[in-house]
Amino acid sequence: MDASWQPVQGSNPAAGVHPNDAAAAGGHWAAQHDPEWRSRIVSRIVEILKKHLPASVLDLDGLNHLQGVAERFEDKMYTAATSQSDYLRKISLKLLSMETKRQQALLK
């Protein structure tokens, strides 16, 4: 064995933890995503929410408020999620629930 070899900091070869596996090493599951990833998710949420609001409230102030709502919602889902699939599932279910409620309200 090479005497100069040392394991990557934070890795545990004996435990079978891969050094690039942030979640297994105790980091957050989303640590491997670039910062733009969450930004794209928020933008998509804003686009979906815009479909549920009347055009009259979508002025500059309304859009800024909607952006803030989407960011807080995304952050809440991000913090609560245990994996990328859990994160996307939580967001999808909430948005689907909102759409279902809107459709039910239209039928009344």
At the fold tier of CATH, the topology name of one domain is: Serum Albumin, Chain A, Domain 1
Question: Average pLDDT value?
Answer: 79
Residue share in β-strands? under 5%
Q: From the helix content, strand content and strand pairing, which structural class follows?
A: mainly alpha
| Annotation, overall tally of beta strands | 0
Please give a structural write-up:
By secondary structure, the protein is mainly α. It has a domain at 33-107: Serum Albumin, Chain A, Domain 1. It contains three helices and no strands. It has helices at residues 35-50, 60-80, 84-107. The model is unreliable at 1-23 (pLDDT under 50). Keywords: Nucleus. InterPro entries: KIX_dom_sf, MED15_KIX, MED15a/b/c-like. It is found in: Nucleus.
Short description:
This protein is an all-alpha fold and 108 residues long.
Main attributes of the structure:
108 residues, mainly alpha, Serum Albumin, Chain A, Domain 1, flat, disordered N terminus, KIX_dom_sf, transcription coactivator activity, Mediator complex subunit 15 KIX domain-containing protein, MED15a/b/c-like, chromatin DNA binding
